[in-house]
Structures are given as C-alpha cells and as structure tokens.
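Q: Convert this sequence to structure tokens.
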Amino acid sequence: MDAIKNLIESGNAIVGIEFGSTRIKAVLIDETNAPVAQGSHTWENSLVDGIWTYSQEEIIAGLQSAYSDLKSDVQKKFGVALKKIRALGISAMMHGYLAFDKNGTLLVPFRTWRNTITGEASEKLSSLFCYPIPERWSISHLYQAILNNESHVKDISFFTTLAGFIHWKLTGQKVLGIGDASGMFPIDTATKNYNKNFIEKFDNLVADKKFAWKLEDLLPKVLLAGEDAGTLTADGAKLLDPTGELEAGAKLAPPEGDAGTGMIATNSVAKRTGNVSAGTSVFAMVVLEKDLSKAYNGLIDLVTTPDGALVAMAHANNCMGEFDHWVNLFDEVLKATGCNVDKGTLYGTLLKAALEGDKDCGGLLPFNYLSGESITGLTEGRPLFVRTQHANFTMPNFIRAQLFTALGALRTGMDILFDKENVKIDSLTGHGGFFKTAETGLTVMSAALHTPVSALETAGEGGPWGMAVLASYLVNGGGKTLDAWLAEKVFATSKKTTVSPKQDDIEGFNKFFARYTKGLAIEKAAIESIE
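A:
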C-alpha cells in the first residue's frame, strides 16, 4: 500500500483509458504492471438520422467522467491526489470516421464502426486493392462519402479514429498506433506504414473529383508500440482533468484500437497466438505465420498487432447486447414480484444455468442482431426469438441459445481460417464480459470454435489495462521486443484457466449452428417486413 502511494505521489503512475461501446474505463497500474485503481463512465451510442454516433460533447464528458472516477478511487484507496502521471495511453473502438477541416472543426457527426452504410465503397475498394476492405474501416466511410457526393469531403484536412481524436486533443499530435491505423487503411507489414501502392490507386480513383488533398495528407502518422507519441500538453491536462490538478508532461503511447489492447491483455502478439474478445461485439484474432491465400471480403479482416505483425480477424458487430436486454427484462420481472436480486448475481446465475441446458439448446433459435452484420450479409438487425411448438423451451436452454447465437456470426468467419486456410493456433485466449463467469464463457466459446480456449486471471481487466501496459512499455521497454517484454515483465507469473471442448458440446453447437445458418432467411424476412 505504501509503495503504491509513493508511486502515485512521486508522479510515476501509469494510466490507460479505453472507450468501449458501453463503458469508458480508466486503469492505473503499479510498477509490476498490475492494476491498482480504476474508474469508469457508462454511455451508449445513438441512432441519429440513420447513423450510429456519439456526440463530441459525450466523448469529452465521458473522458472526464472516467478520469474523475479514477481520481476518486485513488483518493479512496491510497489517500492521495492524482496530480502527475508518468505515462498515459488512449485506446478506443476501432474504425469509424471522424473528419475535420483545417480549423479542427468536426465536419459531420462521428460515424462509428457499428454503421453498415458503406457497402458500395467497401465492395469497390476491396475489388480495386484485391484486399479486404470492410464496411467499418475509415477508408470505406471516406469513399462512401465521396460516392454520395457529400459536400464536406472537399473540406477535409484530417480524419482519424476515436482513439486518434482523443490523443490529438491531449497532445496536439495527429498520430495513430499501427494496430488502430490498420483499421483505417491497409498496412504494408514490410514497411510498417500505409500501403503506398493502395494509396496511389485510391488517389487515381478519385482524381476526377479534383480535391485539393491527397489521401496521405489526411491520414494520421503511423507509430509502433514503444515509440514516442507526444506529451500531455497544458490544454490536454485541463481537458482530461478540468479541476486543474493534473500536471502536463506525461508521455503518451501511440493510441491504439480495442483489437490491439485485447492482444496485449491476452499476451497474444506472437505468431500462432490468438485471442477472442467478446462483449458488445465479438472478434477473434490470430497472428499469422504467412499471408492468407486469398482475400475473403466481408468475412476476414487483415489488421496488425501493436508492433506491426499481420493478424487475421473475424469480427461480428453483435454479441452480448441482446442478452443484456433479456437480463434487464428478467430483473424487471423479479422486482415486480418483490425480489431484489443484485444484477451481478442475476447475470452470473443465468450464465451458469446455460451449462445445464441441452447441448443443442433444445431447438431454440434466437438472433441477437441489434444492428446489421456484414459477415452474414445483413445491413440491418432485428432481434428475434424463434422456436417450434415442440422445442424444449426451458430457462437453461433459452440462456444457452442466447450465448450460442452471440457466437454464430463469429463462427462463420473462423471456419474460413480453420478449414480453408489451415491456420494453426498454439493458444487462444479469451477476454471481455462473455468470460466474467469463466466456466460458462470458456465452455461455450471452446465448443463454438472447436478448440481449447484459455482465460488469464487478468481477463476481466481487458482493454484499458492493455492500454496501460502499452504505456508502460513506452517508458519501461528497455529496447526489448514487445512479445519478449510482455512474457518477462507482465505475464511471467500469470495464472491461466484452459477449457478443452467436449465432443458432445462441439456436436451440440454444430447442430445449433446449422439451424442458425438456415434461419438467417427468417432474420432477412424480418428486416424486410418490420420497420
């Protein structure tokens, strides 16, 4: 306790902040890279004029709220004020579109990763580059705006991701970690920079528009993990902590996306390692030994680790969001009968019940599509629950089916890596809310991916802790490679729980998945029929 107090008072604390879909979290770590204090802010995206967005005011207010909550936790635990930070890192949901003019004015509301409005751009760019360009990527948003003849495009001076935006506000630096940058525009892993050939092709593609800019002028500078990304300015310190207590001068790590921080949090940056992050959305990433044999447009993304190694990603927009709605409904029912059960207890009880259900969920079929799902070819979502009259409609089967459907789209993508590309994985580590009840999360995930899945004791810390670790690597890396430093300084004594799938669980998920795939026609009909 005294050592941590001294660390904070001496200004040597390290902080990571991550903007997730529903929570903004801040984590402070000690000299051993262990989390010792945290803060958070709850928020939610809004659908405005058909666009999933967060306002600038919400972004800044959320940043300040999460940091203020961290300060309060530090004061409560250690009796000291958080006035100086040695290093800081910002991470956030990847992709999306934040475009600014030469005066730094946001030209259109933030378009998040969740939007599925760039199908035409995605398809044309993927064909042009012979490289998968998902709808979520920043370049898809930019090109779709061009295709739509949106007036703001001619005035763009800079565009970036959410993490890049916050970092810019704190430091004045228009930079991005390579992992987050790889979700804006394709990266050449040989040069560790944007693909020059693709940039030239894009500029030629839009040459007839006669814009005053070239694409390379608009993109943030690419940085690798451990490289200097600037310092916290006086204005940045005041923005982060409006009380004025926080001093300027902290070193900032390159801002990263949630994919990159997930790799860090699960020690999955070496080749043949992988991780699966499951919360509001779900994605699995595998660090590749070699390039894929072909592009799988709309199914497999290619991004990088924070130090620039090629990663194959299967990403689904929808995971646990619909399950959360059902938990809220059950909570209302309990309260209506006079039963006040803690939400965490309710959540855990329901998750454990899933293990008691029939292996194939008894014939129940939910769809968790709160939004569109590119990997299954749907531009919108309609949450559904379908069953035959003879299905085994029990609570354990219902919960198990909700967890299975949360992984249905992910399984669609992972089958490509396992079956068509013969990708080998030495370890697959899970993190995120799906694994809060580790036994259930690991059992269901291992069945869905028919491979052993592990959880580290730090799995619940997730992205903000991973970003704090990257900030620590910036000031403590000592010239070591990222994977070597993580193995030696962060995960040397970490405890790991691994679940290998049982054959009957695999067969049960396969039976459910066949029903899920066939049932996509129902989801499509609902989208067409219900507004």
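The longest helix spans residues 503-529.
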